[in-house]
Amino acid sequence: MSPSAQPRAGSRQIVRLALPALVVLAAEPLYVLVDTAVVGHLGSIPLGAVAVGGTVMSIAAWFGALMAYGTTGRAARRFGAGDRPAAVAEGVQASWLALGLGVILAVLGLTLAGPLAHALAGNPQTADAAAGWLRIAALGGPGLLLAAAGNGWMRGVQDTRRPLFIVLGANVLSAVLCPVLVFSAGLGLTGSAIANVTAQSIGGALFLLALVRETRQLRPVPSVILGQVVLGRDLLIRGAAFQACFLSATAVASRFGIAAVGAHQIALQLWFFAALALDAVAIAAQSLVGAALGAGDADQARDVARRVTIAGGVAAIGFAALVALGAPVIPGWFTDDQAVIDQTAIVWPWFIALLPFAGVVYALDGVLIGAGDVAYLRVTTILAALLGFLPMIWLAYAFDLGLGGVWAGLALFIAARLLATVSRWRSPRWTVVGATR
């Protein structure tokens, strides 16, 4: 496809890319809920073991998300330049990187399962059970990362159907397999781990098969892999800033009492769920902005940026309205402790007010990632954390400001990132055209 043949990206195309991405994003968390429900019927120790092991495995999922985001932008630029084989070649190199990193994570999981589980678990029984689960689950690391790389390059070439079917198929199979192995086969907690590995390995294999069908040029190219590592490094550092902020916020909230940290956890998980949904718009932005810049059409990239920003803001306003309407009942879905419910009343106005601004920030994050402007996002996220979020939440602790102070820190974080992304969006610096940046 030549650059001139690239279709103009309108609102319908944004929706066409965002909706399948939303389903793919939601598939893994929904499977985790099914797995948790199944294991929960085995007792508190197995449930605690999955919680501990799942926390460790979330590191691999985090690497996978970073890999998918980085690959989407690079592949989209090649695709926009009319060079689909080069876009697919980005997927080849990303898959080599995924395979290598996945094997490393699997080996580390096997060798460090015991120490990690005992460091995180509250008692020896839970730790031993978690270590056993983790030694099996770690084998799914290569498949998990191969699936992430596959998602990345397919989004880059605007293929949304195959990732949808692959991810849904693998997770549905695992959701069916989990209770069969846990209860019918009598494998207990081991069955849960096997079901996890099965889904991840099948998903990775299917993405790999799709790649082989696209191209026979499968040898690794170190220079391209290095470029992907550099991009991944910036995304990784940016992600670490997020982790430091949210871990610190939870640490401070816990110092205000059990009810406060419980209310904070409820609101924070709902915030993460909203972020997951809004990420679908950001993924559409990555693909369409990268393609427009690869085609040398900076005006089209700006038009996409405007449309996805509006879409992200509107979606976030809709979510905020649902949260506002559900304020009297939503906390009760998570707890019947009146003290916790009373504390959620402090958080809820912050949650509702911040969501529309967060929707704009997430959409513009996707625009700048698609443009390859990740170094700017890395620096501004770190500054927003160091100068806004972290000082405010520790001041909240020092002056006993409660959850309102903690969420004021989040407000400063969002405000700083909003200012940074909007100012960048309004400048010409991110619209660097060409197949590479």
UniProtKB/TrEMBL annotation:
Mode of membrane association: Multi-pass membrane protein
Keywords assigned by UniProt, alphabetized: Cell membrane, Membrane, Transmembrane, Transmembrane helix, Transport
GO CC terms: plasma membrane
Main location: membrane
A Pfam entry, by short name: MatE
MF terms in GO: antiporter activity; xenobiotic transmembrane transporter activity
Transmembrane spans: 14-33, 45-69, 94-113, 133-153, 165-187, 193-212, 235-258, 270-296, 308-334, 346-364, 376-397, 403-420
InterPro entries: DinF-like, MATE_fam, MdtK-like
Compartment(s): Cell membrane
Family membership noted in the UniProt record: Belongs to the multi antimicrobial extrusion (MATE) (TC 2.A.66.1) family.
Protein name: MATE family efflux transporter
